[in-house]
Amino acid sequence: MKKFKYKYLVVIAGLVLTTSSCEKFYDINKDPDAIVQAPMSTILTSVTANIAYWSGSDMNRYTSLLSQQYSGQSNGTLNQTQEFDKYLITGQDSNNLFSTAYAGILSDIETIIRIAGEEGSPNYSGVAKLLKAYMYQVLVDAYGDLPYSEAIKLTGNVAPKYDDDEQIYTALIALIDQGITEVNATVSKQSPTTNSTIFPGAFATTRTNWVKFANTLKLRIYLHYSEKNPTLLTTSMNTLIGSGAQFMASNADNFQMTFTDIAGGRNPIDQFETARAGYLVAGDFIVNLMNAKSDPRRASYFTAFSTAPLYRGAPVGAPNNSTLFSKLHTYLRGAATGTVYTGAAPVRMLTYAEYNFIRAEAALRFGVTGVAQTFFTDGITASLTAAGVSAGDQATYLAANGILVGTPAQQLQQIIEQKYIASYGVVMEPWTDWRRTGYPAFTIPSNAVITFTPRTIYYPQSEVDANPNIPGGKQKASLGVRTFWDTRP
């Protein structure tokens, strides 16, 4: 009690002294050497690294299992990957990825935007806004309606409202446009440099990478309107392309983070594989698709057996014995010595290959500027190159698989299946393409606990328990609840 009174006496005395003198009095209880706010440059390092980790962690595994690129396995005890594989998904599964996104990444992004605005550093706020748009695009595609306009208010609003997912998409386009304008600003007190783990380097050079990423992200968002509002897709894409906007032009423009072979710096996909060996193996669907085409990317995508068939994917519900199936390999885990990987592979989040497949589909289906065949060929080539396939093997593969043929529906299937292969390990998009187009044509797992492939995932149970403004005041009715753009039967 004495301590409590003393504090208030000090405060009162301070007020008296302040109002009775022109002298400046300092708070002796504050350490002048203490860091009150981390430097903006350090926060950006954290944000970019955490986005890459997040994109290669839970959300990556969940969506890659749903799109049958990975398969859950074990050597005995049933684990979460196997439960997710058969659609036994709960709100508890979302707790960590949701809290990391909001309380960590998005909160730090808002801090950058605030500091950059206060000090006149639009290059920083522009990059932060582009990263915010990417995060929300992935989150909306996973959940649908989300906190957006009232999010990240800390104690100012601990129960933010959920905004309509279509309205969030509209806001993201505006946010990206703001980001591009600010990234292009010629006067900025500070600019990102090597402190960004995504597009590191002198901003005079990397500025173009950020703009290309931003415009390509807009194309991805517009493509998601394919079944909902094709007119908006066509008009928006043609306007953007006609404006002379810059897009990804090579694999060097990929929105990705390269990891390193040091403790704590390894790729999160490799970290999971190392910590939980046997929990994930190659999915039967993608392996069979690639085996049928003698796809040369298999050598970097999957581990090989010494006898035929060299590459073996696990069907969902297969017996618990991960040694029977090919594992995730160097493309996702880095160079290998025996069974030990460096973990230095990048986490790829939006690629030049994807850009080409977006353009191919848009030209084929909606008359968007461009030649579908040209973009289709360039997309496959970009993917083959990223996987380290030799020029000779690339030519052989393209001769057999690189020509669009058949009806428009058959050509769409070719585009989406090649995009699916090229997007191996890319968070969310393969599952989104299936929800939009029905391709690739997944088969419901034989041991599935529901009769349909999920269209979104459940809200985190922690959010259901804590936020009364969650839609309907309770958890989703089922995994069949859809995003606004998912209108395919």
Describe the structure.
50% of the residues lie in helices and 3% in strands. The protein contains 19 helices and six strands. The longest helix has 25 residues, at 95-119. The model is unreliable at 1-28 (pLDDT under 50).
Describe the structure using short key phrases:
489 residues, mainly alpha, Serine Threonine Protein Phosphatase 5, Tetratricopeptide repeat, two-stranded antiparallel sheet, two-stranded antiparallel ribbon, 19 helices, 6 strands, globular
What is the compact description of this entry?
The protein is mainly α and 489 residues long. It has helices at 2-20, 40-55, 58-66, 80-85, 95-119, 122-143, 165-183, 203-223, 230-242, 268-275, 284-291, 298-301, 330-333, 352-366, 372-386, 391-401, 408-422, 429-437, 461-466; strands at 70-72, 255-257, 280-282, 336-337, 340-341, 347-350.
Query: Using DSSP, what is the number of strands?
Result: 6
Summarize the biggest pleated sheet. 2 strands, antiparallel
User: At the first level of CATH, what is the class of the domain at 42-261 and 348-465?
Assistant: Mainly Alpha
Q: What is the strand content?
A: under 5%
CATH architectural type of the domain at 42-261 and 348-465: Alpha Horseshoe
In spatial order, strands of the major sheet run: 1-3
H/I helix tally:
19
Q: Could you estimate the helical fraction of the residues in percent?
A: 40-55%
